[in-house]
Structures are given as C-alpha cells and as structure tokens.
Design goal:
The complex is a heterodimer of chains A (252) and B (242). Chain A is mainly alpha-helical and 252 residues long. Chain A is 78% helix and 0% strand. In chain B, helix 6 links the parallel strand 7 and strand 8. Chain B is globular. Chain B starts with a strand and ends in a 5-residue tail after the last helix.
Chain lengths: 252, 242
C-alpha cells in the first residue's frame, strides 16, 4: 500500500506540475461563466421566442453534458497519454519502474491520478455553476441541488472506465500525438456508431457516459439499471486487467 | 551475496541480447562489465533492474527473487541505466523528491547529501531541461545513490562527463564499495574499469567470455585491455559466434 500511495502521489504531482492542466481548469471555469451568462440571456429570450435555447440552461445539470461528452474525454486522453505514452517515449518511465513498486500498482496509480484530476475538475464545475446559478437569482432547491450533486458523482465511474480504456490504447504506441489522435478517432466512432446502429448503444460503454440521467431522472426498471451497472463494471475490470497485463510485459 | 545471476538469458526479436549470463557479487565488490556496444551489458543491467523480462534464468538480489518479487528486491538497488530518467519540466530537487517517496528512510537531508556528493547542490532549484548532459548524468547518479542501496547498478556512468566528472564517478563507486555496497558498473573503456573495479567481466556478442579478480587479471596481463583482447580471442577460438 505504501508503494501504491507513493506512486499515486508522484503521478498526481507530475500531472499538476504540467501547466496545461491548470490552464484547462481555468478554461473550464470560464466556460461555466460564459454558459451561465449566455444561459441567462437565452432564458430571457425563451419567453419571447419559444424554447430554442433550452440547451443553454444555466444550471449545474445544464452544463454537465458538454463537459461529459467533450472536455472530460479529451482531458482523460491527454492525462493518460502524458503519464503513459509520453513517459515511454521520453524514457522517464524507467525512473518509476526501477523503484520498489509493482508494475500493476504503478499502472493503477497513473489511472487514479488522472481520475483525481477529473474529480477535482468536476467539483470545480459543480461549485462554479451552482454559485453562478444562485448569483444570477435562479436559486436551486435543496432537492435539485442533491440531484445535481448525485449526477456529478455518478459520472465518475463511467469516466473511470473511459480512462481505463484510454490507458490500454496509450500502451500501444510511443508517439503521443498519434495515440491522442487515435483515441479521439476511436471515441468519435464509438459515439457516432450507435446513431446508425442503435443496438450498439446497449453495448458500447461510451453510451453510458450520460447514465446519471437514468439514475436521477425517471427511475427505470431495476433490471435495466442492474444490467447497465454490470456492463460498466465489466468494461472497467476488463480494460484495467488487460492494461495492467500489457504494462507488466512492456520493456523499457 | 548481494547479487546472483544464474544462466540469465534475454534475447530480443532480432536475436541480440544477453545469453546464459552467470555471476555473483558480494558486499564491497565492484564488478566492471567490459564490452563493446551491443555486447549485452545494458540488457543484463536492465534485466536485474526489472526493466525487461528475461527469457530464462534466475536473478536474486539480497536473497530475494528479483523476477517474481520485483518490489522487494528493487528496494535494495539504485540504478542509472542508459541516459538518466529525469522529468524535464521539473527541478532537480523535485526529481529526487519523487524518487524519495518510495523509501521511508530517505528524507530531505539525504537528498541534500547526495546532491552535495555529486556537486549538484547549487543547481537543485534548476529545471532539468536547463542542465547540460554532464549535469544530468550527475543528477542521475544522485538518484541512484539516494536510498543508500546495497546494490548500485551504473551503466556507462561516465557518459557525457568531463574529467572532473569522471573522477567524481570513480570516487562515488569506491565510496559506495567501501560502505559495503556491491557495485555493478559497465563501460566500453578498459581504463575506466581498471581504475575502479575489484572484478572484471568481459562481454561480447551477448555472452560473458571471462570474469576474474582485477588483481589476478593484472598479474597475468599488462592491462585490462589485454585481458579483454585475450578473452575475445579465446571466445572466437572456442567457437562463440562473436
């Protein structure tokens, strides 16, 4: 456990010492502010021109899909690429492998470090969007606040599965830009394919990125919820096990 | 016994690597691996450090199976293999602190001590990307020494160093051995090995052709270089494909 904690602290340290991650956090806050302002203007227009600006609802729940579908996947891809592919390319991976830590612990530490950053990002987005919503005089009730908080928390497991998937792909090459490109293309393909082949939405884990709506909104059948939960967990386990196996056999 | 290799073989897809390597190191001994580029020195060291998986053979560090118990075995080692593995966007101090987290007995004073030992203390707050090749090599050496390891593995440690730096490496190796550590050092320069090793092993074409005590070597040959030439000649006569 001590080795894992040391590896986790190191990976987190390495991640936050890259200025781009702090810059992206600031960009996230700016997006929240812009969203709230535009949403407020749009809300005013809704009364006059109908519901054409509903997508800009200035609530924590309104801003979540944008981050969930676009920004968080990109940040996850960037994080795993930096901690896995770039380290292999720059020969810095051996600095950690030569230390007293099992490889699977090091691999897990990298994933947990990326997810820690995403969790902090989620917390920032939630806090800023909630404060702005209150400041703009559109108070959220306690019930809505708890639901929003639960929604944010529920996105973490699916994002962790995405991180495990991205880490597995990141192990396959030594060119950061190529891996990043590959990840974006694969993610886009997995996001678009269910539109043409609806059956895939039941199978591809990327379809579950918005699963918090099922848990928070109108409660679906228990069997369906269990089915989705099993699929998410199974994907997570398979991706992590496959990734740690590949990482264990890698030569640096 | 600090380190023991028994019939270790690691062959890459291109057929190169290291084959059937066996030797042992006791505390205070310095084994110099001497051989040209591509002779298997780095492969052997990487296998000991756990950077690559061996095809066959056994490696034990301080009595611990290094192949199956990497975490426990590597706790006793410090390595500088190929170029120093340093994070360019961080400072010298940060690099050492990252490594120090894995050892409960290593604190800030240990970090300062090793930085002073390699004469890099005044550059501790500099970003690695601003350092010269020789300075990076010194930081790499400091990282290898950080945990006061029982086994020190140094692959071509004099790479990129000036004369002062090379003398410093020699002093560090001798000091580590005097402190009871076993040192495995590689070089393609016979003179380097002669200056600091207690034992010398000749590697060529992925095979270990000869291994002997440096005093025995210097009694039989005028220099380590002659020992190397003789070992390679005998290897060829003995049918080794080198």
């Amino acid at each position: 456990m001590t080795a894992f904690v040391a590896a986790y602290l190191n990976e987190t340290d390495k991640l936050v010492r890259r200025k781009k991650y702090i810059a992206f956090l600031i960009i996230g806050v700016v997006i929240c502010i812009a969203w709230a302002v535009l949403g407020s203007i749009a809300s005013g227009l809704i009364g006059q021109h109908g519901g054409i600006f509903v997508a800009l609802a200035p609530t924590p729940m309104g801003v979540l899909p944008f981050f969930l579908q676009i920004l968080f996947p990109l940040l996850i891809f960037m994080g795993v690429t930096d901690l896995i592919t770039t380290e292999a390319a720059e020969h810095t991976m051996k600095a950690m492998i030569c230390r007293p830590v099992e490889r699977w612990k090091l691999y897990a530490a990298k994933l947990v470090a990326v997810m820690t950053y995403i969790t902090i990002y989620l917390a920032c987005v939630f806090t800023v969007s909630t404060i702005l919503h209150q400041a703009l005089g559109r108070g959220l009730g306690m019930d809505a606040l708890v639901r929003a908080l639960a929604s944010y928390a529920l996105t973490i497991p699916t994002l962790a599965v995405l991180a495990a998937f991205a880490a597995l792909i990141a192990l396959l090459g030594r060119s950061s830009s190529l891996i990043m490109f590959l990840l974006v293309v694969v993610y886009l393909a997995m996001s678009v394919l269910p539109v043409f082949f609806p059956i895939l939405s039941e199978l591809l884990f990327t379809s579950f990125l918005g699963w918090h709506r099922l848990w928070i909104g109108v409660t679906p059948a228990a069997s369906r919820m269990l089915h989705m939960l099993v699929i998410v967990v199974a994907y997570g386990v398979v991706f992590f096990m496959a990734g740690s196996l590949v990482f264990d056999r890698k030569e640096y | 016994m600090v380190l023991q290799l028994s019939n270790v073989t690691k062959l890459y897809k291109n057929g190169r690597g290291a084959e059937d390597i066996s030797f042992a190191l006791l505390p205070g001994e310095v084994l110099g691996l001497l051989g040209p580029n591509g002779s298997g020195k780095t492969t052997t060291m990487k296998a000991i450090a756990g950077l690559i998986k061996v095809n066959s053979g056994e490696i034990t560090i301080c009595g611990i199976d290094a192949i199956n118990q990497h975490e426990k075995a590597v706790r006793h080692t410090g390595c500088l293999i190929e170029a120093p593995a340093l994070y360019e966007h961080t400072t010298v101090l940060t690099n050492l602190r990252l490594a120090a987290r894995f050892y409960s007995h290593v604190d800030e004073s240990c970090i300062n001590e090793v930085l002073e030992m390699v004469e890099m203390y005044r550059y501790r707050k500099d970003k690695v990307r601003s350092l010269s090749l020789g300075m990076r090599q010194r930081v790499g050496l400091a990282m290898a020494l950080l945990s006061s390891p029982e086994l020190l593995i140094l692959d071509e440690p004099a790479n990129g160093l000036d004369i002062e730096g090379m003398l410093l490496v020699r002093d560090v190796i001798k000091a580590a051995a005097a402190g009871g550590s076993a040192v495995l050092v590689s070089s393609h320069l016979a003179n380097e090995i002669q200056q600091c090793a207690t034992h010398v092993a000749v590697m060529h074409g992925g095979k270990m052709l000869a291994i002997d005590n440096i005093h025995e070597v210097l009694q039989s040959f005028s220099s380590v270089e002659d020992f190397f030439i003789d070992a390679v000649k005998r290897g060829r006569q003995g049918g080794f494909a080198i």
